[in-house]
Amino acid sequence: GWGEGSLDDTRAASSATIIRMNTITSIRQILLRDIDRLRVEIEAFEHEADLWRAVPGTTNPPGALALHLCGNLQHFIGATLGSTGYVRDRDAEFAARDVPRASVLAEIATARSVVERALGELDEAEVAREYPARFLDELPTTGAVLMHLSGHLMYHLGQINYARRFHAAPAPSPRFVT
Q1: Are the CB atoms for 101 and 42 separated by under 8 Å?
Q2: Which of 48, 78, 83, 112 has the fewest C-beta atoms lying within 10 Å of its C-beta?
Q3: Per-residue confidence of the chain (178 residues) as pLDDT tens digits?
Q4: How would you class 100 by CB atoms within 10 Å of its CB: exposed for 0-12, middle for 13-18, buried for 19 or more?
Q5: Cβ contacts of residue 153 below 8 Å, gap of 6+?
Q6: Do 151 and 76 contact (CB within 8 A), yes or no?
Q7: 41 Cβ partners below 8 Å, 6+ apart?
Q8: Alpha-carbon distance 79 to 86, whole Å?
Q9: Dihedral (C-alpha) 91, 32, 154, 132: value to the nearest 10 degrees?
């Protein structure tokens, strides 16, 4: 039962809480959760140099992807919705190399703070309003932009996770052909 604290009870209580939340609160919590996951991924790289080594077959190293995510969130949420004055340099996000892990983590912390503050100030009605700037050559609602940004964060977070595991993988055993 509910009072026994089983895993099923915890899941049911968690689902009930999410269902009762409004859209902006839910999106804010999901973005903050995934920004926290980004921080954990960057911290988990065993060798800092691996942040700047792209996985074979890819273009962007995980450190550049992390900086790209931070710039993306600070621009589309911070500057556009939160009026932070942030000026984005997207090319620099992708061109960055050998930035110390501590600096990448500081950017993640800044992005998290900006998202928390900006989305904390929006009301539920804002989700249905037109986003205050052109986005991908369209004029979607703020809610649609926030869902897109959440998906974008998750997509690159998965790439960073894969790169971390790739770089941490032991070398395969040599095979000898006889």
Answers
A1: yes
A2: 83
A3: 334 444 455 455 555 555 556 899 999 999 999 999 999 999 999 999 999 999 999 999 999 999 999 999 999 999 999 999 999 999 999 999 999 999 999 999 999 999 999 999 999 999 999 999 989 998 899 999 999 999 999 999 999 999 999 999 665 665 655 5
A4: exposed
A5: 31, 34, 35, 38, 69, 72, 73
A6: no
A7: 62, 66, 157, 160, 161, 164
A8: 5
A9: -60
Q: Tokens 């000026």 map to which residue?
A: 87
Measured between alpha carbons, how far is 161 from 163 in angstroms, rounded to an integer? 5
Which stretches of the chain are DSSP H helices?
A: 7-20, 23-44, 62-73, 80-82, 90-95, 101-120, 124-128, 142-168
What's the pTM? 0.84
Rounded to an integer, what distance in angstroms lies between the CA atom of residue 38 and that of residue 42? 6
Cα separation, 117 vs 7, in Å, equals: 32
